[in-house]
Amino acid sequence: HPIISLTSLFIAQQHISQLTLKRDSPQPRFGPPVRYPPSMRVYIEPDLDALARRAAGCVADVLLATPGAVLALPTGRTPLGLYRELVRMHHENQLDFSASRVFSLDEYIGVSPTDVRSFHSYLREHFLSRVNVLPANIHLLPSSADDNDCQDYHTAIRDAGGIDLLIAGVATNAHIAFNEPGAALDSRTRI
Q1: Is-catalytic flag, 106?
Q2: Does the active-site annotation cover 175?
Q3: Which of 3, 56, 97, 146 is 20 to 30 A from residue 90's alpha carbon, by CA?
Q4: pTM
C-alpha cells in the first residue's frame, strides 16, 4: 500500500488495490502526473513547505480517485505542514474527507485521549477537527489498549478493506513510525 514518508523528503506510492487506473485516466488535479501502473517514485523537494504541498497533493489525488479511502495518519512535528496544507485544501478547494476513513498509527498507553500529549488530542487539534471526516469514520487506538484491543484494531482495518494510504515518518535511526530497526516487517497492531 502507498506510504508517504515526510522526514526523508520522499513520497513512495505503490499500487492502491481499490483503485483501478486506466492508461487513459485523467491526470491528477493536485499531485504529480500518474503513470499506469503506479510504481514507487521518489520526489526531492527543496524545503518542508514544498514537501507538504507535494504530499497533500498526493493525498488529495487518492481522495479524489477513491472518496472512501482508508488513511493511516501519524503524529509528531513532521506531518504538521501536511495537515496544514490538507486543511487549506479542504477550505479553499473543497477537498472532501466525508467518505474517508481514518486510522491512527499509534498511541501512548495510559495517556488519556484528552491529554494534550496524547495522539488522539494531536490528531483532533491539527487535523480531524478542521476537516469533514465523519466521527463514525475515525478510528483511534485506545490508550488503555491490551492485546485484545490490538487484535480488534487490526480487524477493524481489515474490515475497512485495508489501508489505502499510510503516511509515516522515517527517522534518522531508520525507524518508521514507532517500528524501530529490527522490528518484524509483517508485525501487526501491538503494544
Answers
A1: yes
A2: yes
A3: 3
A4: 0.75
